[in-house]
Design brief:
The complex is a heterodimer of chains A (326) and B (294).
Chain A: H1 2-49, H2 63-66, H3 75-82, H4 86-104, H5 106-117, H6 121-132, H7 139-149, H8 155-162, H9 177-202, H10 206-214, H11 219-244, H12 251-257, H13 263-266, H14 269-279, H15 292-320
Helix pairs in contact in A: 3-15, 4-9, 5-9, 6-9, 9-11, 11-15, 14-15
Chain B: H1 2-7, H2 11-38, H3 42-47, H4 60-67, H5 72-98, H6 109-121, H7 126-135, H8 153-164, H9 168-176, H10 181-192, H11 194-210, H12 213-218, H13 227-236, H14 247-252, H15 257-291
Helix pairs in contact in B: 2-15, 4-15, 5-8, 5-11, 9-10, 11-15, 13-15
The chains are: A mainly alpha (326), B mainly alpha (294).
């Protein structure tokens, strides 16, 4: 008994001494992480706590901590499902993402396969360099260039006019929005996204191709039976990530592209949250009223759905194949 | 025989080369169009369709952009300041956050790691963030462009991985000579990690240069706006160019709005094009660093 107690005491003493000497040696390390710690606390954790505003009737004067709770606490979510525009923003969000995925997801895979077939390294390198470049232009520039290309003095409208077609202003046409958004998106990122697939292809053992050729496989068969299978793990992971992104669009780009005339196809969850919670532009319901708690609730709904989609897609991938995120 | 078949340039190769060639033209064309239109005269643009080559070469539109009241260089200067200051701060904070992780007996590593990684999976979303930054009184200040994004957890993890590869005997020797942690970080770890810093400085600055949404949310003060906001107002809004340029003046010197629009696009992407060769060199490896899991 006594021995045990003294042992414990000794251990405690030892621990304290160790801590003291460690602190003496390493206290500067804590001053090093301090700025980062505070930045994360303020700009990540406080906003996470701020999610409570979706359950409050938030008022800027009172802040996250003192704003009164909503009655019932899930009231804003009820209102969301009753919102006249909810159906429209959901449909637009999903359609835009799904069409975007259908066109945009295979594009870098095809591009990577094409690049891989080019044997002349100078030609290949030049083409690749050109294809990455749009990725480094800002969203404002991308949308700006898009508007320049379709301006009335621009090449596309003038050519159409030359052949007797009056295109009008394509940015006012709800039917054109999705095509413009998706095409410009592919233009921006297809080259860059192809890099990761090229890396997967580079990992293939060249002997596989050699023996395939000896067995009489043609080019298409080599792609089908060697290159593509090697890309499957990468494809799976990126597909899981894209599926969870179905409910998210690049709303910042849409904010630059859209106008009230095309809300019927262009207004998505992100832009609606922005208008409802921040800009208060008329055209949501025509009222121009800001309701920050409501907007936060819609935003939270979006994050939750996105997380669920990720979990489901991951489960599915694990069930069907061997690759999964976790 | 099979080998020679592999090396032959057959009709499939021709097709693939052609497709890639066409794609390259498509990738390049929008920027090429901006270039040729910005150096064509307004009259030429008025009478013809400018498609592939500039017509009636002139620098009139650039001269107009530089001398008009729009004062594009003012926004340019703001952006350069945000890019340089923001990146410098970001690299400093990130390096300081990453360094302690390589010290063996630093207590609190595990906690800090969890503390950081949680923020990669959860975020407050747009509104809580917007309200927080507004409540902090950062609207219409220089700080909002520099501080909130200064620490990226993702970059910290990459820095940490890179720092671990710095030989520990180098550090041990310095500690024995009585150097403190700050000194070791500044005089041993940072110099050894030069390629890392060069890459992230370059990418950080390009990112800041291209950044527009933060300033769109928080900056309404004309004197603080970066170049991207100037572009947004001039190119994508309904009022368009007339917000910054006088249409009457343009008509007078026979420059069309399209000339001016393309000229400011070229002026804005020029810095990116200048650093692009260096970017290009680094980012393929950069992607690979990012995909490494611990």
């Amino acid at each position: 008994m006594v021995i045990q107690q003294t042992l414990k005491k000794q251990q405690k003493d030892y621990k304290r001494k160790y801590l003291a000497s460690n602190l003496k040696r390493n206290w500067t390390l804590y001053t090093m992480v301090f700025p980062g710690f505070i930045l994360i606390l303020i700009f990540s954790y406080i906003p996470i706590y701020g999610i409570v505003m979706a359950f409050q009737n938030f008022s800027p004067g009172l802040g996250f901590f003192r704003s009164p709770w909503a009655h019932p606490w899930y009231g804003h979510f009820l209102n969301m499902f009753k919102d006249y525009y909810f159906g429209r923003i959901m449909t637009n969000t999903l359609k835009l993402s799904i069409y975007g995925l259908l066109w945009g997801f295979p594009a870098p895979i095809v591009l990577a396969l094409l690049f891989n077939e080019i044997k002349h390294s100078g030609y290949k390198r030049t083409a690749q360099t050109i294809s990455y470049m749009p990725y480094f232009l800002s969203t404002v520039i991308i949308v700006g260039i898009l508007k320049i290309l379709f301006a009335s003095e621009g090449p596309i409208v003038s050519l159409a006019a030359f052949f007797g077609n009056d295109m009008g202003n394509i940015f006012m046409d709800p039917n054109a929005f999705r095509t413009l958004y998706i095409t410009s998106g592919i233009w921006t990122s297809v080259g860059y996204s192809s890099i990761i697939y090229l890396a997967a292809i580079a990992g293939v053992n060249p002997e596989l191709y050699e023996s395939a050729v000896i067995d009489g496989a043609n080019r298409l068969q080599q792609v089908r039976y060697i290159t593509l299978p090697a890309m499957v793990p990468t494809i799976t992971i990126l597909l899981i990530l894209s599926v969870s992104g179905i409910i998210n669009n690049d709303y910042q780009k849409i904010l630059l592209m859209y106008n009230p005339a095309i809300y019927s196809t262009a207004d998505v969850i992100g832009t609606y949250v922005y208008r409802m919670g921040i800009s208060g532009d008329a055209g949501t319901g025509g009222t121009g009223i800001i309701n920050q708690s409501y907007a936060a609730a819609v935003g939270l709904f979006q994050s939750i759905v996105s997380f669920l989609l990720l979990a489901i897609a991951n489960l599915f991938a694990r069930h069907v194949g061997e690759t999964s995120l976790w | 025989m099979a080998q020679s078949k592999l090396k032959q340039f057959n009709k499939w190769d021709a097709l693939i080369y052609a497709v890639i060639g066409i794609l390259s033209v498509v990738f390049l064309y929008p920027i090429w169009y901006c270039l040729i239109t910005s150096i064509s005269s307004g009259d030429a643009l008025n009478k013809n369709i400018i498609l592939l080559w500039p017509m009636d070469l002139t620098l009139e539109s650039y001269k107009y952009v530089f001398t008009s009241d729009a004062n594009i260089f003012f926004y340019y200067r703001n952006s350069i300041f945000y890019a340089v200051a923001g990146t410098a701060l970001s690299l400093t904070v990130t390096a300081m956050m990453a360094y302690p992780f390589i010290i063996k007996d630093f207590i609190g590593k595990r906690f800090l790691n969890v503390y950081m990684v949680i923020t990669m999976f959860f975020s407050g979303g747009l509104l809580p963030y917007f309200i927080l930054v507004s409540e902090l009184g950062m609207r219409n200040t220089v700080w909002v462009m520099i501080i909130p994004g200064a620490l990226s957890v993702y970059n910290t993890i990459i820095f940490r991985t890179f720092f671990r590869s710095v030989s520990s005997s180098l550090r041990e020797a310095a500690y024995i000579d009585g150097a403190g942690h700050y000194r070791v970080l500044a005089q041993i770890v940072v110099p050894v990690s030069k390629p890392l810093f060069a890459t992230f400085a370059l990418f950080g600055m390009v990112g800041k240069w291209n950044e527009w949404f933060t300033s769109y949310l928080f900056i309404t003060d004309q004197t603080l706006k970066p170049i991207q906001i100037f572009l947004r107002e001039s190119l994508t809004t309904i009022q368009g160019l007339s917000q910054h340029f006088s249409v009457a003046q343009m008509t007078q010197i026979r420059v069309l709005p399209q000339n001016v629009r393309t000229a400011i696009v070229i002026i804005t992407i020029l810095p990116i094009l200048c650093v692009y060769p260096f970017l290009q060199k680094y980012f393929v490896s950069g992607i690979m660093i990012g995909s490494l899991k611990e």
